[in-house]
Amino acid sequence: MYSNKNYIYLDGFIKNIKQFYIKTGASSIVNGQDLYNAIEQYGTIGRGKSRNFATSMAEDIALLYDSSGNLVSSGMIEAIKGVDEGKYLSGAFQYEYSPQLVKSFDQIGEVRTVTGKTPGSSLLNIPGAKTWAGKNMALSQSELMMPSIDTSNLKLEDVLLSMESTGIYTLNNPTIVLKDGTKKIVEGQFIIRKLGN
User: Fold this and answer.
1) How far, CA to CA in Å, does 141 sit from each of 90, 103, 130, 153, 174?
2) Which of 9, 42, 159, 167 sits most deeply, having the most CB atoms within 10 A of its CB?
3) Distance between CA atoms of 115 and 118, rounded to whole angstroms?
């Protein structure tokens, strides 16, 4: 039986992890239903005050694309992210947090580490803010919590049309949900990217 673990990290250790995200940006992979719910139902990308799980952009690029720059199969993405088979049948989308956006989050204390006690996290998270990848430990990634992005003023139709024509939808200087539930506009770019065809 697995039990929840509450890891305590030294400030210097956390700072080193954050610097990688500030340098390369952050990334989160979702499916079509997640995107629909975020805009049409919940009004936030992320779980309100509970934030959104993300890894570094550099790690996602390294694992999501092969040596020729082609996106790996949906099954491989599922293995990398440790999600159920068929998760991305409704489409795969990447939430991209620009380096400046992550820096803005960090400057106001809104980037958090993940432990086995973080709501929604895996009980199998391993020390070092790393995801559990079972026998495929080479697929393990670092993981931090980014604040939720306010989507209450977005229209799903506009987002989908933009991605159909350009492949992305960009929010400049998005509004985020702070840990106390209030909202704040921060500097940086948040991009929703359609992965694959």
Assistant:
1) 24, 20, 5, 32, 26
2) 159
3) 5
